[in-house]
Amino acid sequence: MKPSRGLNGMKVESQDWGEAPDGQGVQLYTVVNGRGAEAQITNYGGIVVSLKVRARNYNYHIGLGQAILSVIFTKIFKFF
Questions:
Q1: In the chain, what is the greatest distance between 2 CA atoms, to the nearest angstrom?
Q2: Cβ(37)–Cβ(52) under 8 Å?
C-alpha cells in the first residue's frame, strides 16, 4: 500500500486489487477520515467497494469485497 496523509487527518492508501479483461491493473483506494469513517473505491469506474462509518455507539459496514470485481467486468462494463 502507498499511504498518503491529507488535511485534517485524512489518509489515502492504494493497493493492487486485480486486473481488467484488457490486462489493465485495477487499484483499490482506501480513504479514512479523522473520525474513522472509511471508503474503499476502485479506479475502474469509481465503484464503491466498501463503506464503514461510526455513529454514536454503532459501527456500520457495507461491503461488497473482491467478488464484486468479476461482476463489474461481466455485468456492468460489458456495455462499454
A1: 45
A2: yes
Please give the residue range of the domain that contains residue 63: 4-79
- How far is Cα 60 from Cα 43, in angstroms, rounded to an integer? 24
Q: Where in 23-68 does DSSP place strands (E)?
A: 25-32, 38-42, 48-55, 58-63
Name the grid cell of 51: 463503506
Cα–Cα distance, 57 to 10 (Å, whole number): 22
Q: What's the structural domain count of the chain?
A: 1
Is 77's pLDDT higher than 60?
Answer: no
In sequence order, what are the beta bridge partners of 62? Answer: 51
Distance CA 35, CA 27 (A): 24
Q: What amino acid occupies position 37?
A: A
DSSP state, residue 72: I
Residues 13-34: tens digit of each pLDDT: 999 988 887 888 989 999 999 8
**Structure pTM?**
0.69
